[in-house]
Task: structure prediction
Amino acid sequence: MDINKVDIDDANFSLDLSDATQAVKENRFEEALKLLNLILRENPTNIDTLYLAAVSTRYLKKFDQAKKLLENLLLNAPDMGRAFQELGHLSRDMGDEEKAVMHYRQACELNPALIASWNFLHKYFVKNNNQPAADHALEQIQKLKSLPASLLYIDQILNEGRLGLAEQKCRAFLKKNPTHTYAMSLLAEIANRLGYFDDAEFLLEKAVEFKPNDGDLRMKYAAVLRKKQKFVQTMEQVDILCEQYPKNLSYQAQKASETMQNGDHKEAINLLNDILKKNPYNFSCLTSRGHAQKTLGQTNEAINSYQSAYQIKPDHGEAFFSLANLKTYSFSRQELDSMRKQVNRVDLCQRDKAYFHFALAQACEAIEEYDEAFINLDKGNKIKNEQSKYTIEKMDKELQAQIDTCNDSFFKNLGKGGCESNDPIFILGLPRAGSTLIEQILASHSMVDGTLELPNILSMAQGLRGDDIYGNEGNYPKSMKSLSQEKRMELGKLFINDTKMHRKEAPRFTDKMPNNFRHIGLIHLILPNAKIIDARRYPLDCCFSMFKQLFAQGQEFTYGLAEAGSYYNSYVKLMNHWDKVLPNKILRVNNEDIIDDLEGQVKRMLDFLELPFEESCITFYETDRSVRTASSEQVRKPINKSGMHRWKPYAKNLKPLIENLDEELLKPEDIALINS
Result:
């Protein structure tokens, strides 16, 4: 029996499983199953036991039993790539090629280190004349086959989130092979996932020194430098890649991406155009160019780029979603039919499937096909929810910890400290609550630079967490109690210095990272003079708008109506706490108030910020600046009420939302409409 077919290693399981594992390796499946069933009686949800039992029953051709075991396994480990691979094996053995392809693609998305899945997909793509996909699969196979078996296993369990075991085995391998660069990169990835970016940077820096011509290593090194906000050094690494491999268009595309991330979208477009001259069929670069054009307000050009991308690759879901995400684009009947066809393909990867569902939802809503729109919204969100490890309980606990820690005595005991700069203006709250509109208004003022969503505060908070490799949570926010005045000053100055590259010449600047509301205590400690604006929107409008939006990352609470409602409740609770312990620190601005009285709310915000009134804030839609968020097109138009009450056609579907929202936050007539 080929050990790679079952992807197990007896040394990596508990002692209780050792005999069963050995029996599976030696094809003694009946014996293995007896042992595994005994273990399952004591621990029916053990992931490794369920996996081995599924493997054994499949080889014994007990397909129904194998299916039930795998379903149970995925209930306990929904993102386990090997489980989907085993589902692929099961579907293959049952003669269902289409289902096998679907499961193998899911497996590779979750865990790119699964050779068996790539092998099947490669054969399938070759048979169906999908050469680009076949080439990609073959590249992955060759890369994985070049690895020692022990590193391949580490790669697999790392992708399953078993960081403790992966770290243990990686360190053991490096002890024997101290200069093995791939092992160093795996250990760096573990550190990266835990937020230990200094460790990740050190490991990758050393790996690049050992192997300076390894492009993949240098790319990983550049990525961690970016996470650490070392933008100059990031670009230096990308430039080295482009010099080393002048014909490698992927590295040139990465340079364009970095240029875009640094805010120079015009130069990014120039770089992407150069690539497209060499390869006009590069759909990924066409999509990236569309993103840059959209950010600059070049809507027609962005539409052409996205359309060109999907014409080259009809299953490129991101291109269709990007068109939908313009909020102003109307899909043709032909485009609508194409999306419906693509989303039902069995070999479509989950990432593209999610894109198509969200795009279809927008397209169907535009033609008032609300039932189909909601079906697609629900399916798209379920895909994202299954990929996420988000739980209401965990988030409630995290936000409650802020309340418990940052009480009146907390700030009193720590006293004054931090950087005295009043440059930053934090615009925070929930996504889709109107923060982009507020930022556009303020960035239209001559004394304010709009710098979009900055990750710095979130990175600092992550650095204070101290999570360990075994999944144990760190001590944040309690760790803030030990921040000395010197350390608070250091962190405050670090924020000001690290954000300079995003600014121009104005004395004030905005940071509109919405999730910063979780860390107002930290903001106050390190930047006591910073101003904070809380963007607020009626919960039904806000939550449903979140549910309709496919976010790039960091907003996992939006992928379910119950999750969105619960998060809104917790957000209100935490903001009420900040108002209590930090009076006059925060200005709440309701989106509905801006719509009803723009000038009054503009003056109110400028007074709070101690800035003189400027008419340009009223005509904000005329301001020429980059806007990267989902509201980019909306803020380039005068105020209107088109975004209000968009939830009403879906009222019959929204009971899970209102069941998780405090009734005091809602209008009685809206509750009645949803319950009717």
The chain has three domains: 3-145, 161-387, 392-643. The beta strands are 424-429, 448-450, 508-511, 531-536, 586-590.
